[in-house]
Design goal:
Distance between the termini: 56 Å
CATH superfamily of one domain: Galactose-binding domain-like
Radius of gyration: 40 Å
CATH class of one domain: Mainly Beta
Number of helices: 4
Number of strands: 47
Helix content: under 10%
Strand content: over 45%
CATH topology of one domain: Jelly Rolls
CATH architecture of one domain: Sandwich
Oligomer: single chain
Structural class: mainly beta
Length: about 725
């Protein structure tokens, strides 16, 4: 024998010994049993182990220890069934108790049923049935379960998966988290037990004492009570509803901020604020808004729009104050205005248009451009303007202009001349139609009027100075006027009027600045580039717990019955289970009912390399579907189908009536590789048959389909 042959044999022997030792470690061992019996008639090849008065049956495999009142041990299959007060412990990490456990030493898969409780250092899972895969270190339930995580709260769901190494839970269907601070409901919910982080997908709500939040994609820190929402999201703060592309909230300080396409609805004062960045402090009843900020307030049968670079709303609903800063404007169908700053007090009904004091004297707007208002054909300016409404009736009442009051209206006939009134103070009254009816100019009044007779013929141009002037308007035109303590005045024929005196000192016609629509409020704004929202990653659905790797382990062990016993089996690929569906590979058969989709049969290579797979595409922007009805009304069924392609669809075992209720469903994110998808449902005996459905097929969805199959699962 040469050295190479010797070393080869030695190496093979070494690996053989390693394999044997590895297998020995996987062998289930009986550590203690009070009594051992054999019953070949009922339990062929098994040892029946029973406890005694001292202690329970004790089973060991590697780091697994199991105790029970009774156990049936199949040494040839390295498989055990444990009954009564069962406890399974893995090292110092897992402690699981139940009424019954099946455990395979080959697959290292355990199935527990009856008041199952699984504890680890981070949390506790309770369910009626639970799977525990030692190889992947995962626990899984599909018929409802509860997870308790100290201060993070209690979580219930229909389906739950625990990734122990990641300390991550993935919950599906009717998920609910409850703790002392919040109640969260969601369809898809990822939770990390060590950090308390919760990720929500699908229609979800977060209800706290401070707010109610809705989102279809969001995050919540159950420890810090902070979170954010990034899809179809809104927060309800009692009388304020906040919506936006991205919303952040902190319930510890009663604060929320929103970014991009924001809408804040005040349900009490009937106002809506929009913009692209907002901050809300609930305790202070304050709202800060910027980036094309706009506040819309309902008034009578009209609305008042207020726009500025920044808008602040403060105060309780009954005493709310709106402050608009920098390039502030208001618009109403019959009234508009512009100022450096606009303040509106909803309790007093006073809206103030003012200039802010600035140190930059080169600022043309603040030093030369006074606040301005337009009503019908009248332009009014002054150092400060007050617009007064009746808070109860919401009707415009009066107008006050302080210092350098100037009112201008274009002569409606000539279109070139201007009626002008100037004085220290202006007091205006509105009629029931919100039109300026009467104006009094008080102190140092000056005026220029285009005087006309009843036939609207120009009599002349009237220019005068007086102590004050009282004017009546009709539809923007001067109907009559009265001067008090007149100092001087002349009525000139038009052709004799001095051309250089047609404008009073301070005349400033600003028609080009007048907003004539809501869109005009924004015409002076700089172009806006919205903030990029990074947000959250899209939801990643659970891989099947019984994935290819686990199914291979089960197949090698020959212990598929561990799954069947829980009515959750995934059958072998052979035809030993009868397919209850007819024409399974001819989806054009009328037995398959279809809507808004197109089918081509036998056009795609299937997983068995035969050209017998079909191809489906959606036809319209609505939910397409295809289904076959099964006339049975009770039992446990598995509906499976092979799919590959692009898009998102849902397979379901569904009630065959108008309710479209899913007994069980699976949302599928299609890939370019063939994959078999399955759903199982235990059909209640409700007297109604069911159907196997593929639905939610949209216009952009296209996929290949092969071997749809429905089998009835029998209990062994």
């Amino acid at each position: 024998m040469n050295k190479q042959t010797f070393y080869t044999i030695l190496l093979l022997n070494f690996f053989s010994i390693g394999i044997i030792n590895s297998q020995d470690k996987k062998k289930i061992e009986i550590e203690y049993a009070g009594r051992l019996t054999i019953d070949e008639l009922n339990y062929p090849g098994a040892k029946i182990l029973t406890r005694d008065e001292m202690q329970q049956v004790h089973i060991v495999q590697g780091s697994i220890n199991m105790w029970s009142d009774k156990a049936i041990y199949y040494s040839g299959e390295n498989f055990i069934e444990a009954y009564g007060n069962v406890t399974l412990i893995q090292g110092d990490t897992i402690n699981m108790s139940s009424k019954y456990i099946e455990y395979s030493g080959i697959t290292q898969l355990a199935f527990a049923s009856g008041n199952v409780v699984l504890q680890d250092p981070n949390s506790t899972i309770s369910s009626d049935t639970l799977y525990f895969d030692r190889v992947k270190q995962q626990a899984f339930y599909k018929n409802g379960g509860t997870v308790v995580k100290d201060t993070s709260g209690t979580i219930t769901s229909k389906v739950g998966r625990y990734y122990m190494e990641q300390k991550k839970y993935q919950f599906v269907d009717d998920v609910k988290l409850v703790n002392k601070d919040a109640t969260i409901n969601s369809n898809y919910f990822d939770f990390f037990s060590d950090t308390g982080y919760a990720y929500l997908y699908g229609p979800s709500t977060i209800n706290t004492t401070e707010s109610n939040t809705y989102t279809e994609k969001g995050f919540y820190d159950t420890k810090k009570r902070t979170g954010y929402a990034v899809k179809n999201s809104k927060i309800n703060y009692n009388n304020r509803i906040i919506e936006g592309d991205s919303i952040y909230f902190d319930d510890t300080i009663k604060f929320a901020s929103a970014t991009n396409n924001i809408k804040v609805t005040d349900t009490i004062n009937h106002s809506i604020a929009i913009g692209h960045y907002a901050e809300v402090f609930k305790a202070q009843d304050s709202l800060f808004l910027t980036k094309r900020a706009l506040v819309v307030t309902k008034q009578e049968n009209d609305s008042i729009y207020m726009h500025a670079d920044k808008i602040m709303m403060t105060g309780k609903p009954e005493n709310r104050i709106v402050r608009a800063y920098y390039n502030a404007k208001i618009y109403k169908s019959d009234l508009s205005g512009k100022a450096d700053s606009i303040h509106s007090n909803q309790k007093t009904g006073i809206t103030k248009l003012i200039n802010l004091a600035r140190f930059n004297n080169s600022d043309i707007f603040s030093t030369k451009r006074r606040p301005i208002m337009w009503n019908i054909e009248n332009q009014m300016t002054g150092d400060t303007i007050h617009l007064i409404s009746n808070p109860e009736t919401e009707k415009l009442d009066s107008l006050l202009v302080f210092n350098n009051a100037f009112i201008i209206s274009k002569d409606t006939i000539s279109k070139t001349g201007f009626n002008q009134i100037f004085g220290i103070k202006l007091v205006g009254l509105f009629n029931d139609e919100n039109k300026l009816r009467k104006v009094d100019i008080v102190k140092n009044a000056e005026s220029i009027f285009y005087a006309r007779n009843d036939k609207q013929e120009l009599i002349g141009i009237d220019k005068a100075r007086s102590g004050s002037i009282s004017i009546l308007f009709a539809d923007g035109d001067i109907e009559e006027y009265t001067r008090y303590n007149q100092i001087d005045g002349n009525l000139y024929p038009e052709d004799e009027y001095p051309k250089n005196e047609k404008r009073l000192k301070g005349f400033d016609w600003r028609e080009d600045e007048r907003p004539l629509s809501v869109e005009d409020l924004f015409k002076d704004d700089e172009p806006l580039e919205l903030t990029t929202i990074k947000g959250l990653e899209d939801y990643v659905p659970q891989d099947a717990f019984f994935d290819e790797e686990l199914l291979e382990r089960i197949k090698i062990s020959g212990q598929g019955f561990i799954v069947n016993r829980a009515a959750q089996s995934i059958p072998d690929e052979d035809n030993s289970n009868e397919n209850l569906l007819e024409s399974s590979n001819n989806l054009n058969d009328p037995i398959w009912q279809k809507h808004d989709l197109q089918i081509k049969s036998n056009t795609v290579l299937s997983p068995n390399n035969k050209k017998d797979a079909g191809f489906i595409t959606g036809k319209k922007n609505s939910d397409g579907y295809i289904y076959q009805i099964e006339n049975k009304t009770t039992g446990t069924y598995l509906w499976s189908v092979w799919l590959k392609g692009n898009g998102t669809v849902r397979i379901s075992i569904q009630k065959n009536d108008n309710s479209n209720k899913d007994y069980s469903y699976l949302d599928i994110y299609l890939t370019n590789d063939w994959k078999k998808y399955s759903v199982m449902a235990k059909k209640p005996n409700d007297g109604i048959n069911f159907r196997c459905v593929i639905y939610a097929i949209q216009l952009e969805d296209e996929f290949s389909i092969w071997q749809p199959k429905l089998i009835e699962l029998k209990q062994k």
